[in-house]
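FAQ: What does a multi-protein file look like?

Like this. Sequence, then C-alpha cells, then the next protein.
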Amino acid sequence: MILLYLLRRDLRISDNVVFSAIVKSSRYAKLIPLYVLPPHQMQLSDFLSSLEDEYPYPEARSRLGRFWRTGPRRAKFLAQGAWDLKQNLKERYNSDLIIRVGPAANVVKEWLHSQELGDEIGGVWMTRDWASEEMDEERDVDSAVNEARDKEGRDIDWKVWNGEEMLIHNDDLTHPAKNTPDVFTTFRKPLEPLKSNVRRPLPPPKSLPPLPNRIPAQSSPFRIPTDYETFLSYLEAPVQDLGLPKQISHPPNARSAHPFEGGEIAAHTRICHLLASGAMSKYKQTRNGMVGQDFSTKLAGYLANGFISARQISAYLDKFEDGQQPVNYEEDGLMRFDESPGYGKGENEGTKAVRFELLWRDYMRLCMRKFGTSLFSVHGFRGWQQEHADAPKYKSNWLTLSDPEVRDAFTRFQLGETGSSLIDASMRELYLTGYTSNRARQNVASYLAKWLGIDWRLGAEWCECCLVDYDVASNWGNWAYVAGVGNDPRGRGKDAKKGGKKAGKHQTSKVIGTDEGRRFNPVKQGFDYDPKGEYVKAWVEELSGINDVNVLMQPHKAYEAKRKNSAGVPALRERNLDWVTNPLVQIDYARPRARN
C-alpha cells in the first residue's frame, strides 16, 4: 500500500510527526511526500505549459489592497526551503519531494483515481494548520478522500495529525483553545517555567519507505520544472511588479539584516550560529536593534514554513544551557557552543527571552483558533469579543482606499515617503529585503493605524506580500494588537485625538479610526532606538548626508532658520522633496537634553 503525505508548513525531516509515524506503520510499503503549491496564495501562471494556455485561477491577490499574496522575497525563501527538503529526501532516504500545482484537494482526487496509483493508495495523511484557508483546504481534502471511501467502498486511511508547530504541545495547554485567556500574562503564567514544559522534539527517521515506481504527472495545463533555477524563476517572475508607481532604489550603503536562505539545513545552521556567537545570550539586550544580522534571531521565517519547529529551538537552548554540543555537530558542519559566553551556565536572560517570544507565537496561534476569521475583520478580536459578551459596541471610522487622498497617502506609506524618517526607513527596507525589525514593525503599524487612521488590514496585507517571514497568525494578530483591536489591554483607551499638525494636502489624520492606547511617537522611537541615525541614513538615501539628528528624525525641520546651515541641510533643502516639505503628519518631538 502507498501512503500519500500532503505537506504544507511542515517542510522538514526532523521533528516531523508523519515521517516518525510512517516508520512504525506496517501498512505502507511506499511513501509519496507531496507538496502542492496553492494557487489562491501564490501566483503560479508561469507554470503553464504554453503561452497559449489560459490560467484557470484568479490572481493570488489580497482582498482589500489587491497586493500579491506571496511577493518575490518570500517566494524565493519558500522555493529554497522546498528544494532543500527535496534534495535531503533524495540524498538521505532515496526518496523525493513531489511538487505539484493545486488546489490540494484536486490533486488528491486525481491521484486517487489515477492509472499509475489508483487503488494502491491506502492512506492520505497531513498535518493540521489552524489558519482559516488551511482549514478550508483540509475540509476539501477530507471530502475528496471520503468520496472515494463512501462511493467506491475503498479502505483509505485518512488522518490529520497535530502539526507540532507550537512550543507547548496541544495536549499540555492549561486551557482549551476556545478558552484561551484574552490577556497574554494570564495565559503565560501557568506555563512557566517554560524550560520545564516543552516536549522533546522527534528525531529524524533512520529510513523511509521508497517512492512507488510510477507517479502521476502534473495535470494540464501546468508543468513542473526539474531544476531549481527554473522552479525559482516560475515562482518569482510573475510577482516582481508590486504595483508601486515607481521603483525604490537600493541605497549603496544599506545591507540586508536578513540575507539568509530558506530550508531545514539553513535553519539549524542559523540557530547554532546564534548560540555559538553569543548572540542568543545577548538577545534580550539587542532585540530592539535595527542594524545588523544578529540583533534578533531571524528564526521567524524558518518557523513560519516549518523548516524548524519551536520545540527544536528550545531543545538547542537546553543543550547550550546544560553544557552539551549539538548532536553530530561535526558531521553536520555545525558550530561548537563551548567557547560561547553562558555555555553550560543554565538559562540566561537571552535564552529565556527567546522562549518567551516562542510562547507569544503560540498565543497568537491560539487566538487565531479561538477567534477564527475575526482575525481578518476590521474590528479584529475585539469585534468577536463584543459579540460574545455584554460590552459596549466598538465603533470605528477607518479611512479606506475609496478616497483618492487616502490612496495617495497609502502609496506614500508603501514607498517610504511619509516624511517620518523611522517609518520611511522601515518601509524601504521591507520592500527591498523582505525584512524589517520588530521594533520598526510596531512603529509602522502604529503609524498607519493610529496616526493616519487608515484601515490597519491594508498594512497587514502589504506585509503579507513583502515579508520573508510572513506568518498568518503572527502578522495579523500583531497588527490587530497594535491597531487596538486585538488582545492588548493597553490598546483600549479613549478615542484617539489628532496627534499631528496638518501638513499640506496629504494630511490624513482628520479622522482616527481607533484608540490611542498604544500609539508610538515614531520621532521619539527614532531617538530611542536609532540614536545616531545609522538605520535611517542607511535606508533613506536622501538623508544620508544629514548630521543633525533632529533633522534626521524630523526632516521638515530642515526648513527651520536655526538649522539651515547644518551639515547636509542646504543640499536637502535644494532638492525640495515633497515628502520632506509636506509630511503626511507633522509629528514634532523635542529631544530631552543630555544631563551633565
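And here is the next protein:
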Amino acid sequence: MISAINTYTWNQTSHTKSFPDDILAVSYEDGKWSKPYYDCGGGNIWMLTYTVPFFAFKDAKYFFKGTSGIDIDLRRVDIDQCSLPEGSTKLNIFASSNKCKMDTTQCVSLAGFGFRRGSYKCVCRKGYYFPNITSTEKSFNGIVVEEEYEKLMLGKPNTYNIDINFQCKKCAEGCDDCVDFSPCIATYDIILRITILLLTLLVIGFLPMVAIFTFKYSDLKIVKAASPVLLQIIILGAFFMYTTIIVMYPTPNLVTCTARFWLREIGFSLTYGALMLKTWRVSQVFKVNSAKTVRITDKQLIKLLLLMIAFVTVILFIRTMVSPPHTIVGRTADNLKTDICPTDWWDHSFSILEVLFLIWGIRLCVMVRKTPSAFNESRFISIAIYNEFIMSVFLNVSMIFLKYPANPDLQYVIFFCHAQLTATVLLGLLFGSKALIIYKGEHKVEETSSHKITTQKLKFNSKQKHSDPSYESISDNKESAELQEIRILRTTIENLIEEFLKCGPAYSDYVLKLQAMLEVMKNSKLGESEELQQKLALSNGCVIKVDSNKDVSCTKKN
C-alpha cells in the first residue's frame, strides 16, 4: 500500500475530485521474467515475456484481477555463450555454453549476431597458433562449430569429433606467443660447444702429468729454485679455471651460474696469488743490500696465500647469500630467447679487484726485472702477469657488449680463449721451459758447474790476481800467506753469492749466510790484513794506494 492522489471516473467527461488515498501498487519485483522460449506457430521467433499482476477494488477491498505481460523479441538481443570471468557474479544463463575445444582455444563473444547460437569465435590460447598460417582470420567461427557439434549430437557425419579440427597447434618450446612453429629459443651450436669441451678436457688431462713432473724433478735445481709446492698450487688454480668452461657447457641455471663464479675467483686467487707471492719474495730478498737477515720460506708464503683465499671465500659467501646468482632471459640479435647468467655490481667489483691485484703484480715485475735468474723464471712470471692483465681487461669489456644482444656461443668461445690464453700460456711458460731444459740435458751442466764452482773460481781468481799489475808491485816472497788466503776467500764468497742469486729465492738462505760472512770479513780480518799489507809495503819502499774496493796496492819509489 502506498499513499497517492486518487480520483474516480464516472464517464469520459465526469470525474470526481482528487483526494488522498491509499492504493495497492505493483513494483518491478512483483513481476516475473519468463525463460527464453521459441514462439512456435506465432511469430516463430525467440521471445522473452515479463508478466506483472494487476488488482481490482471493490467493497473497499483489493482483489486479484489478472496479469499483464510484455513480450520481447530476442532476435536483436545478443547472447554470451562464453564463460564468465573468475569471481564474476553477473547473471548469464548462457554462460559456458560455447563449444570451443578448451584445451587449445578459448571463447570470445561477438556482438551483433542477435539471439542465436554461435555468437562467438574460438581463438587460440596463449602458447598456441592457428593451423592455417596463411589465413587472415586466425580463429574458428562459432556458428560452424555449433553446427558441427549439433551434427555430432544427432549422430550425423561431422568434423567436430576429429581431434585436429577446431584445434590450435602448440608453439615451439619457450614461445609465449607465436604465429607458426618458428623457434623462439636460441639453439646452441652443439658441434662448436662439444669441440671446446673436448679441448678443455684434453688440457685438464695434462695437469696430472705436469704435477707428476714437478714432483719427480723437485730435487733438481731448476725445479727446486721455483718452489715445487707453489708450482703445485698454481696447477690446482689452473684446474679450477679450466673447470669453469665445463660448467658453462649446459644451459645456464642456478647451480652453473654459482659454480662458474666460485671456480673462476678461487682459481684466479690460487694461480696468480702464488705467482704474486713468488715475485714479492724475490723483490724482498734482492732489495736487501746488507747482511740484514730477510728469510721468507715457502711455508710463510703458503700462510699468506691461505689468508688471501680465506678473504676471497668470505666475500664469495657473502655475495652468494646477499645476491644469489640466477638466470634471466636474454634476447639474441634474431630476437630469440636464451638463458644467461646476468652480471651485477658484485661481478664488476670482483673484476675491479682482479685488475688492481694484477696492477700490483705488474709493479712487482718491474721491481725484479733486473734480478739475475739462472732459468729466466722471473721473466716468464712477468710475461704471464702482463698477459693476464691484458686478457682480463679484454674479457670484462667484451662481456659488456655481449649482454645485448645475447650470444651464448660467442660468450662460450671467449671464455675458452681467455682460459687458454692465460692459464695455458702460464703453464707453458713455467713448466714448458723447465721440461725443455731437462729434456735437452742443460740442467746436468748447471748442476755440474754448481759443484765445481769453488775450485774453478779459486783457480780463476788466483790467476787473475797474479796477472793484475796492482799486485805485481808487492813481492810474492814477502806477501803474507794470511793476506793471500783472505783475498781468495773473499773473492770466492762473492762469486758464490753471484751464482746463488741466479738460482732464485730457493737459495736465499745461502745468500744471506754468505753475505753475513762477507760483512764480517770486511769489518775485521780484512782491516787487519790491510794493516799488515801496508807494513810489508813500507818495508819494501812502496807508495801505498787504496782503491774504492778497499784493495791495497803499492808502487816502488824511484
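Q: Is there any per-entry metadata?
A: Some entries carry free-text notes. For the entry above: The radius of gyration is 50 Å.
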